[in-house]
Amino acid sequence: MDNILSFKFIACVLVAVVLVSISTIVLSNDYRDRLEDYNKGVAVARENLAKVPVYSYLEVGIFRKPSPLSIFVSGIESKTGNHVYLTHREIPTSLKGGLIKNEFAQIFSFFDLSSVIVIIFTILTILLSYDSISGEKEDGVLSLILSNSLPRYKLLLGKYIGGLVSIVVPLTICFITGILILLFSKEIEVNSDFFLSMFLFYLFAILYLSSILLIGIFVSSRTKSSFNSLIFLLAFYLVAIFLLPVSVRSYVEITGAREAKNYANNVDNFKREMSTKISNVYSDIPVKRSWAAMIMRGYKFILKRINPENTIEFYRRYFSQSQNIVKEYALKIYDLKRIDFQNTEKIKKFQNMFLTFLPSFNFERMAEFEAGTGQDYLNRFFQQLALYWHQYVHYLDEKDAFSLKYFYPFSKEFTLEEQELLIKLDTAFMERDWENRTKYSKEAERYNQNIDYLDLEDLPVFNFYKQNFLDKIKVVIFNILIIFFYNLVFFILAYFSLARYDPRVEA
Amino acid sequence: MFKELFKRQLIEDIISSRSIINFILILATLIVFPLIFANHYKNLQEDYSKNIAENNKRLEVSSRSLVNLLDTEQKLVMRPKATRYISEACEDEIPQGLLFKLEEIKLLSKAKESSSSFFYSPDLTFIVQFLLSFFAIVLTFNSLTFEKKKGTLRLVFSNSIKRAYLILTKYLSALITVVFPLLFGLIISLILLNLTGVISFSFSIFFDFLFFFLISLFYISFFILLGIFCSTVTHSSKNSLVLCLLFWILLVVIFPKSAGLMLNLKHFEVPTEKQIEEVAERTYRGIWDSYSDVPHYAGEGWEESTKLNVKISNEAQEAKQEIYDHYLRKKINAVLTLKRINSISPASLFEYSSSSIAGTGLFHFQNLWTQVKQYQNEFIDFFKREDMKDEESYHLFFHPDYLSRKPMDINKIPKFEEKEIRKAACLKDALQYTVILAFYNLFLFILVFYRFSKYDVR
To answer: Would an 8 Å CB–CB cutoff place B114 in contact with chain A?
Structure first.
């Protein structure tokens, strides 16, 4: 009661609630936009898939659905793009698109619930606990309390539970405010999964704050004056919340970037190698082409209807050989990236090890994992995408995709009319008759009727395997344990130091 | 008396536990940060020189024929600066530069992938903005309440000392206590940066550090005054501290980011890069379509029709460029306006002015943009001049079919080189924020003075 009515408490809670409501409104708007973008993207991708004339045009749009929890734990979700168009040419390792409107406004990224907990609730907890023991001593109440036959552990427990309750109340208010705002904005649908995740997130937050509370009580029971205890705790706050994460993270990012040069150094060589191989294939094919091969466009190569048979034969051979090379190099380049990834992952492990000492880091990691907005989630997404790529390429092989169907969408024989036009064109070219050449070429350009679209019914679908509850817990169990461990250790430490505590006030 | 008081206060401040903790913290950070930065800087420079090599290679390939230069794309990115140590200003997060073609300047969409969701970078601004301001508050929040509690305040006043002097001594000694580790740390990090080969001592580096130091003085002084102010309005140290911390969180942590809220307003809204591309493309086509009834190629008089063709093409290209420019300007202006709105927080003022002094971040980008525009003019001049020398060319700018195909000497082609931003420009940009900061200081100083003169010492 003492806690809840104090000025510091009311002030902090007010700030927290205001921040949470504002951030929820802003971020839920943002989420809605992203969801809309996602839905639009999926619709477009599906539409495109229905109209693929040849396999070289086939691109499977894979979209990452925004998680409603990103409203409370933004993580890196809104910054990493939301889709990738998969082809056999590349195994993707980064996402495209996303809804960053003003790139220059990145300096103003706003708070979410998780950062409110880390920044404001931590300081609230510190303010509640720094004088829990030493303050009473200064007031002389401690010796009074202890003169009653109250065991010291009960005193500690009382302090702890009282403190915890007075933190959990505003925390709950913040959570409820957030969820209510979300429920009132009608366009956002939430399901039971969402509530389960929110509940877990809530539990994590309590666990985290309880560890901070115990650290506060411990420090308070170690120091002689509450002023010293406060100075120490505030220094801890600065170091743990701002200083260490900033330096360690940037150190890791920078050294990580240094280690990950494998791809950057070798990719040019690989690509050059690939293009030499492909151009060798091109020049080695013994079939002669005629002019009409010019009627194709872009890297996707689609030959229009009006093409003589030898040209088609030439490209059939060319693509069947070259696309296998392309496929092979997609794997090789992916391997390069994977080595880089493993190197950076090693350094990241160091970061995780180092930062695990900080309760706030554990909390953030748990929250991001639960919400599916962190780096872990992204890594898993790409791992599964790579698996899907193999499946997809296998499908292409089965369909004999790198053959005639790769670039030529027609199944029928040439009509008489078309054959005539072909001959006319050939003669115009041979005789350098520019006027007729332009005329017939334009006519030939128009021969693009009755394209048979590919039947892609049996194309394997990418299903992102979402982890169920237990799997999720397994990954972050270490972080949870650490926080538990902190709770336990500091409780015991606080108990011991309280047991030896001298409640007398020095004169 | 004043001297005596000042000396005592200073000694008291310097040997207190809080200032020792602070000193150790600041020193540790100022040793670690330069080492992190040295690595970072090396990375950046490698990337930058790779980019330049790439540009030169492209120019070299195109130099086989003058007309090829029309379509040669160059990525003109911001040169990494050693002053990024003073202020990173999110330079890795904003677009890295511009995509340059002879007729077209486009925003280079973000190339760097950042994996952290953390927006603070290890630079001097961070140290001053967070650590020192925090320390300033912790040092002063109980400057009066504590003495009052102990009863020494009354004693002090029983001597015939003016209240103004007391405040002044408190203020000055706190300022010196906070600034001293900064000065010390700055020198250490300068030496460390020199040893790691990031900077060589020069006038401009000293200038930057000096001005950064001056701005820091203003900023720290604000928080010292804030601490004293809180101490004068409250009667117990605890309340004073809570008030101070609240102010600190609001001013340093929350306000600098809060302008982001307004980005969602209609006024600041800009389309995404993809949508801008679409709009530009539509405009381009629209202009071509508006001339659809004009014959482009006639058998006779092809010259006229070609000229018309070129004219339309240039017009369409200009319109397209106008779209790109418009949205880029809009984006930058939106951020600038938000920065101005954010000026209520001294922390943001400090952040912006130090980034201007360092010439990093958005300010850097703006300068790059101006320079790229100049480069474009230079490049076009060069192109036209060279084309005029060729008698076989029709000199129809810029239609690829009617221009010179002469090979070019690669050394003659102008290459983009980013110039240093003039110090005067940096100062001018920094000044607009620093002035407000100074004004805040003055305001708070008067407020403190007024409050204290009415303070009940009992």
So the answer is: yes
Q: Which of residues 116-175 of A touch B (CB under 8 A)?
A: 119-120, 123, 127, 131
Coil, helix or strand at residue A1: coil
What's the mean pLDDT in B360-379? 92
Give the separation between CA A23 and CA A113, rounded to whole angstroms: 7
Alpha helices in A356-455 (DSSP H): 359-371, 375-398, 416-430, 434-445
Are the C-beta atoms of B118 and B92 separated by less than 8 Å? no
* Strand ranges (E), B23-115: 74-77, 97-101, 104-108
b vs e for A390-418, b when ≥16 Cβ sit within 10 Å of the residue's Cβ? eebbeebeebebbbbbbbbbbeeebeeeb
Report d(CA A15, CA A206) in Å as an integer.
Answer: 19
For the CA atoms of chain A, what is the radius of gyration? 32
Q: Say whether A123 and B245 touch across the interface (CB within 8 A).
A: yes
CA distances from B248 to A8, B84, B138, B142, B192 (A): 14, 25, 10, 15, 31
Q: Write down the pTM of the prediction.
A: 0.86
- Which helix (H) or strand (E) segment is A342 a member of? helix A309-355
In angstroms, the CA A264 to CA A111 distance is: 35
CA B386 to CA B70: how far, in whole Å? 13
Give the model confidence (pLDDT) of A329-346 as tens digits.
Answer: 999 999 988 888 888 888
Determine the Cα–Cα distance for residues A235 and B26; give it in Å rounded to an integer: 11
pLDDT of B80 over the 50 cut = yes
Predicted confidence (pLDDT) per residue in B388-415, tens digit = 888 888 888 888 878 888 888 888 888 8
Q: Which of A30, A228, A249 lies closest to B118 in CB terms?
A: A249
Q: Which ipTM score applies to this complex? A: 0.82
Q: What is the largest CA-CA distance in chain A?
A: 117
Position B52 confidence tier, pLDDT thresholds 50, 70, 90: very high
The whole-angstrom separation of Cα B69 and Cα B400 is 10
Tell me the one-letter amino acid at B270.
V
Q: Where are the beta strands (DSSP E) in B190-320?
A: none
Distance between CA atoms of residues A179 and A202, nearest Å: 12
Chain-chain contact of B131 with A254 (C-beta, under 8 angstroms): no
> What is the distance between the alpha carbons of residues A51 and B400, in angstroms, rounded to a whole number?
35
